[in-house]
Specification:
The chain is an alpha/beta fold. The protein contains 14 helices and 14 strands. The strands form two sheets. Strands 3-2-1-4-5-6-7-8 form an eight-stranded mixed beta sheet, with helices on both faces. Helix 3 crosses helix 10. The termini are far apart. It binds zinc ion (ZN). The site of zinc ion has 9 residues, from helix 8.
Length: 346
């Protein structure tokens, strides 16, 4: 058996065959988020032969990720490497015949067009509602399909959105829920096997569509509680679709109305002692200059995607190429701003 037989077991499936495999190879997919869902879905799609995969994540690998994010190893957490970069590196070893592009950036109203440029389908592996609402608007505007997945605790749900109109994500969730009302993996925990299952279901719906079988795609919301042994499929409530601001009334307020302001504000990063400061409006100092300037101040790490300074007091400042700074070791925004002023913008 040779390299050319790589997809043999997949092309034997009558619904895929050589023609379906060719369609899969010709498609460009973005995976939004390289966490528990994104790493698993990306792994399946890379091995299935999706010709171009763009992996997007703003974060670095942490020890708490290793329980479920199966592309990452201890060494990645120890070095705090960029998740998108590591994920692409691992997948390249699994399939050298496809193109993989890592993007280390925050998805915001300002960046989403560049991040999803030229993409045929998006896997939603985001960890927050702001990105999902923005993606929903983008999908409706550009008529791009996406596969929603979410998983917290031992439950999750999956849904395919065509981007061609009704129904859309806002038919289900009309307004952004208040942050305090949302259970996240950081607060509620999550079962690693549940995230693998949900990501696998997302990849399955994606492969149906990618291989030229939109008719096979599940049209209802599928919710599963893996621990409680419950599974249900629900139709979109027609009355909600009728009144949906996005797909019924064309109000793409997250994309066009600037409703997503989170990216331009400092944020305390959920579940860890860290603050993210947005890119400054003025031209930032080039990363290599920053790294040189820091040499006498502490341990300096330089990569293609960021430079990092670890101060003797243990705080670390990571300045990403897109201009964001993440300051670990504090959840005090004022303190983070003062460290930023002293070491980055000063
Ligand atoms: Zn809708």
């Amino acid at each position: 058996m040779s390299n050319s037989s790589r997809y043999d077991r997949q092309t034997r499936l009558p619904m895929i065959g050589q023609s379906g495999q060719q369609l899969i190879r010709d498609r460009r997919v973005a995976v939004l988020g390289c966490g528990a869902l994104g790493t698993v879905a990306a792994d399946i799609l890379a091995r299935a032969g999706v010709g171009y995969l763009r992996l997007i994540d703003r974060d670095v690998v942490e020890w708490t990720n290793l329980q479920r994010q199966s592309l990452f190893l201890e060494a990645d957490a120890a070095a705090g490497r960029a998740k998108a970069e590591v994920a692409c590196e691992r997948l390249r070893l699994a399939n050298s015949a496809i193109e993989l592009e890592p993007i280390v950036a925050d998805v915001s109203v300002d960046t989403i067009a560049a991040i999803l440029d030229g993409i045929d389908l998006v896997i939603d592996a985001a960890d927050n509602f702001a990105v999902r609402f923005l993606l929903n608007d983008y999908s409706l505007k550009h008529r791009i399909p996406w596969v929603h997945g979410g998983c917290v605790g031992t439950s999750g749900q999956v849904m395919f959105f065509t981007g061609q109109g009704k129904p859309c994500f806002r038919c289900l969730v009309p307004q952004m829920p208040p942050a305090a009302a949302i259970a996240t993996c950081d607060t509620a925990g999550v079962l690693g096997s549940a995230t693998h299952a949900i990501a696998s279901l997302q990849a399955t719906e994606a492969l149906k569509w990618l291989s030229g079988h939109p008719e096979a795609v599940r049209r209802r919301v599928w919710s599963l509680d893996f621990w409680g042994n419950r599974s249900r499929e629900v139709d979109f409530p027609p009355e909600l679709c009728e009144t949906c601001p996005a797909c019924a009334h064309g109000e793409l307020s997250f994309l066009e109305g600037g409703a997503d302001e989170t990216a331009s504000e400092p944020q305390v990063l959920c579940g860890r002692q860290a603050v993210q400061l947005p890119a400054p409006p003025t031209t930032a100092v080039p990363l290599d200059i920053l790294a040189k300037r820091w040499l006498d101040l502490g341990a300096v790490q330089s990569t293609k995607f960021f430079v990092r300074l670890t101060l003797p007091e243990q705080e670390t400042l990571t300045v990403f190429r897109d201009g964001r700074t993440v300051i670990d070791g504090t959840d005090d925004i004022a303190k983070a701003k003062s460290l930023h002023a002293r070491y980055v913008s000063g």
